[in-house]
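If you are new to this repository, start here. Below is one unmodified record pulled from the training split, so you can see the exact layout before writing a loader.
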Amino acid sequence: MNATKNLLTNLCNLLVCACEAFRYGLTFLRAILCSRAVLAARLLAVESQLAACKQRIDSKKRPRPRFTASFRLLWVVLSKFLDEWEDLACLMQPATIKKWHNTASRYFWRWKSRSKGGRPPISREMQNLIYKLSKENPLWSPERIKDTLILLNYDPPCNDTIGKYMYKPRKPRERSTTWLPFLRNHLDISWAIDFFTVTTINFATYYVFLVFDHGRRRVIHFAITRNPLMKWVIQQLREAMPFGLQPKYLFRDNDGIYGNGVRAFLDSCGIEEVRTAYRSPWQNPFVERFIGTLRREMLNHVIVLGQGHLERMLQEFIEDYYHVARPHQGLYGNTPVLQTKQPQILGPSKLISIPVLGGLHHRYIRVAA
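And here is the target side for that same chain:
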């Protein structure tokens, strides 16, 4: 839309300049054909009007006139053919005409050196392929993308053309992996910690602290308190890591409860702290997903009476159901705590259901009939 508007504007300006140039040409022809007396009279009339305009401009009664492009071009041409052009310029300074000449020269050479065509554009399919590969693999260079396309039996363009159509993020940044590949590459050696709140029947708020294992989607430790403090968090981390059982990376958010003491404790244990960005819970997805599962499958169906009641329900849900009976898609259908495979039953069999949380969930065991 903007390109069409600009094109129409340029065409209108060009048409106006052509009309004015045609009018100047007619004036010049009429001056040649008329007699000397008529020409002298016309010059006198024009010079008298110019003198009046110059007087009003010098007295600052009116602003200076705005000259059109054709008028400027006319005076550029006159400055080339008239020796006394500086004396004839009454409404503008000679330096102004020289400036117009420089501008006209710049536009002329810009038009003369314009692009007259280049390499033929690549197909839309190839553009989409380059964009897709570069977006899904931010570490790949144009050379790597070209080699990959060759392996896929495509005819890729040169490296410079590939770089032109690669995905470019909004803000320039150093090449690095995204959060999801980073988490997947460090699942077995990374844990996460987080808080969530539970409201009891008398509207008291309890804070539940979780230590979560990324590798097996397992709850390492949990604790409940009414007043979470930094020292209390450090003590819970000590209890979650007995006998040197600790991760290499620990993911956490920017909650003010942790403070600098938690960071110092992790540094003393040789654990690298990974802090998520502000208001970005998706950067700590596994523990956030567990909290959502806990709310959907237990907390939304019960009324918590107190801290002891909440602790017993969490213990039963985690140890008797979530760890040993609930399959997890991220573990290819396995449970967080690996179970020994039951022996195959050749004859008739039946299922024995074991209720969990008063029948809210069930565990099943297959036995011979």
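Two things worth knowing about this chain: The chain has three domains: 37-59+66-110, 124-169, 184-340. The beta strands are 190-199, 205-213, 218-225, 249-252, 272-275, 349-356, 361-368.
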